[in-house]
Write a structure and sequence with these properties.
This protein is α/β, with parallel strands linked by helices. The protein contains 19 helices and 30 strands. Helix content is 32%, strand content 23%. Mean pLDDT is 94; it is low at 9-13. The structure holds 5'-O-[(S)-butoxy(hydroxy)phosphoryl]adenosine. Residues 261, 306-308, 383-386, 408-413, 436, 497-499, 511, 514, 520, 525 line the site of 5'-O-[(S)-butoxy(hydroxy)phosphoryl]adenosine.
Length: 653
């Protein structure tokens, strides 16, 4: 890698009007104290939750494996429900749900509690016990968080597969976990279009022998195939459900869930999170970032299929008895002000979304905002990818009316919760548009070069974490070796995040995107190898390469190269077919924007595709060092394919 100097905003002077008074000094005092004795710090935070039994030891660190709050017993569903229904909060609204066309459902904490208990009793009837895996493939309806909580109540391990993934992606994940129960819905809606989820499940289950029972939520009211002895309607099962199921006491280090995410090989990684430290960390960090109060109305626009939804829709907010909005649908459907309308309707005070969504709504213009009173807003969050200063300032000015701090939270599926973020719920630091600011208490982050040495101020390098933290992944499911290799071997002793970053003169972190073969498409993580194996699974394709290209709204878009097998012609029709194929193998998020046909690809002598060369050609950037390249001609070929494509574009416009 070539570490380069990058221009950044260095000054602490705020280039924008602000109505809050930050205090850097005070924040640093808290931070430094936390660093001096992180275990004492987390011991204190952990006592804010209700445990069935306290721990003997805060941390056992056998690098790179951590055990937190050893011997402590708790239950995540108890913390999110039972604890609240014992108080006045039983009648507090937990969830305001709404769909694209304005159907609504409202659930109080006591209703949510009762639904979760009943579902847990049904799952138990199907034989779900502590440690069993429960697969979840549901749209963003209240049954989704309920399923997670019901699974946690029984001590089972849930594994949610985003309902935008295809049947193959679903089957791969279900098979990896060997889940015996799967919960899904007949269908769901996106931009008014029906998505036949049950059909996708039926196709997946042909390849998933472990699944014995399927529970189907009636969401779309469409005819579906129900296989006798395997498929059951959720609403029918609930008729005979029991009202109460004792929450199973879990040791702090018993897994709560597995969530798959993309890495640098074709096989997704099963990130395993523990119960105790995950809850402690999320409970604390959520309060710091969003200053959640009983009066707050919180809305996170993510789907529960991603870690944002696990931590920042289900476990952290519910552990605080937050009132939240859940919206099933697209941001701009049926009109570009759908989200602004919802903020106004429910009086949302904390709004948490992605830079891609902000840029998209920015594109529609302020006129859509002006139709709505957004004065309820107090804090605005951002997550999933770096937020460019322009989008930051637009969000700050036009959505927040220059009175809401922008809380840019840097974290990952692996980190479980927020790591680098302003903390208005603790002490706000001066904000800089485009920077996630400083690490949260006890988090030690650093930017290093190829040799693991700290880089000077303003120099780009790799972001690493120097110490274990409570929300950290335990391991990769059934693959501790890969866990060690992926995260702890590049820089021995440190956790490798896979991100580029720089630190400015004030110690602020500026995240610069992925440093590995992982793309971020609209904030979603997709591995280049996954895309490539999807493309070569088409009978016409011999070899493939994928790269990400900067995209104004989505952050990155997917470009692919294909070498065809003999006897196949590079036609426009085939190109369309291949795009569709990748989409069908992985899901709509993985649709390539363009596919280029070539006869060879730039590779190293050991046969690795040099994606950086492909990228340089497509972006008209200097190609750089080619000394490890096997075949010079391949670069020329890629250039030619690209030039031809550019001509074609000109011709068609
Ligand atoms: C990757 C993790 C964490 C929830 C959603 C994504 C990028 C995430 C930020 C941010 C710059 C960010 C990083 C990271 N990322 N948040 N605030 N600023 N980059 O979870 O799918 O596991 O992706 O998302 O590249 O490594 P994920």
């Amino acid at each position: 890698m070539h570490l380069q100097k990058v221009k950044i905003l260095e000054s602490t002077a705020l280039p924008f009007k602000q109505k809050f008074s930050p205090n850097l000094k005070k924040y640093l005092e808290i931070y430094e104290e936390s660093i001096r004795d992180p275990e004492k710090f987390w011991d204190r935070e952990a006592r804010k939750l209700e445990w069935f039994r306290t721990w003997n030891k805060v941390l056992e660190w056998d690098p790179p494996f951590a055990r937190w709050f050893v011997g402590g017993l708790l239950n995540a569903s108890y913390l999110c429900l039972d604890r609240h229904v014992k108080t006045w909060r039983r009648s507090k609204v937990a969830i305001y749900w709404e769909d694209e066309v304005g159907n609504t459902r409202t659930l109080s904490y006591s209703q949510l509690y009762s639904e979760v208990n009943r579902l847990a009793s049904v799952l138990r009837k199907f034989g779900v016990r502590k440690g069993d895996r429960v697969a979840v493939y549901l749209p963003l309806i209240p049954e989704l968080p309920m399923t997670l909580l019901a699974s946690a109540r029984l001590g089972a391990i849930h594994t949610v597969v985003f309902s935008g993934f295809s049947s193959q992606a679903l089957a791969d994940r279900v098979n990896d976990t060997q889940a015996k129960v799967l919960i899904t819905a007949d269908g769901s809606f996106r931009r008014g279009k029906l998505l036949s989820l049950k059909k996708i499940v039926d196709a997946a289950l042909e390849k998933c022998p472990s699944v014995e029972s399927v529970i189907v939520v009636k969401r779309a009211n469409v005819d579906v195939n129900m296989q006798k002895g395997r498929d059951y309607w959720y609403h029918e099962l609930l008729k005979t459900a029991r009202d109460y199921v004792e929450p199973v006491p879990m040791e702090s280090n018993d897994p709560l869930y597995i969530l798959y995410t993309s890495g640098t090989t074709g096989k997704p990684k099963g990130i395993v999170h523990n119960t105790g430290a995950y809850m402690v960390f999320n409970h604390a960090a959520y309060k710091w970032a969003f200053n959640i109060r009983d009066e707050s109305v919180y809305w996170c626009t993510a789907d529960i299929g991603w870690v944002t939804g696990h931590s920042s829709i289900v476990y952290a907010p519910l552990s605080h008895a937050a009132t939240m909005v859940l919206y099933e649908g697209a941001p701009d459907y049926p009109t570009p002000d759908r989200w602004w309308e919802i903020i106004e309707k429910y009086g949302v005070t904390i709004f948490y979304t992605s830079p891609t969504a902000i840029r998209m709504l920015m594109g529609y213009g302020e006129k859509w905002l002006k139709k709505h009173d957004l004065s309820s807003l107090e804090i605005l969050g951002s997550v999933g990818e770096p937020i460019n200063p322009e989008a930051w300032i637009w969000y700050y000015k036009n959505v927040g009316g220059e009175k809401c701090p922008i809380v840019d939270t840097w974290w990952q599926t692996e980190t479980g919760g927020f790591m680098i973020s302003p903390a208005p719920g603790l002490v706000l630091v001066p904000l800089k548009p485009g920077s996630a600011t400083l690490p949260l208490p006890t988090i030690e982050a650093e930017v290093v070069d190829d040799h693991g040495k700290s880089v000077p101020t303003g120099v780009k390098g790799y972001l690493v974490l120097k110490k274990p933290w409570p929300g950290m992944l335990m391991t990769l499911y059934q693959d501790p070796q890969r866990y060690k290799e992926v995260y702890w071997s590049k820089f021995p002793g440190s956790y490798y995040t896979g991100d580029y970053a720089i630190r400015d003169a004030d110690g602020y972190f500026w995240l610069l995107g992925r440093a590995d073969e992982v793309l971020k498409i609209a904030g979603h993580r997709i591995g280049t190898m996954e895309l490539e194996s999807a493309l070569v699974s088409h009978p016409a394709v011999n070899e493939a390469a994928a790269i990400g290209k900067p995209h104004e709204v989505k952050g990155e878009s997917i470009l692919m190269f294909a070498i065809l097998k003999q006897g196949h012609e590079p036609t426009t029709q085939l190109k369309q077919e291949l795009k569709k194929h990748v989409r069908e193998v992985i899901g709509p998020v993985a649709t390539p924007e363009e596919i280029y046909f070539v006869h060879s690809l730039p590779k190293t002598r050991s046969g690795k595709i040099m994606r950086r060369v492909l990228k340089a050609v497509l972006m008209d950037m200097p190609i750089g060092d080619l000394s490890t390249l096997e075949d010079e001609a391949s670069v020329e070929e890629v250039k030619k394919a690209y030039e031809e494509f550019k001509k074609l574009l000109k011709g068609s416009s």
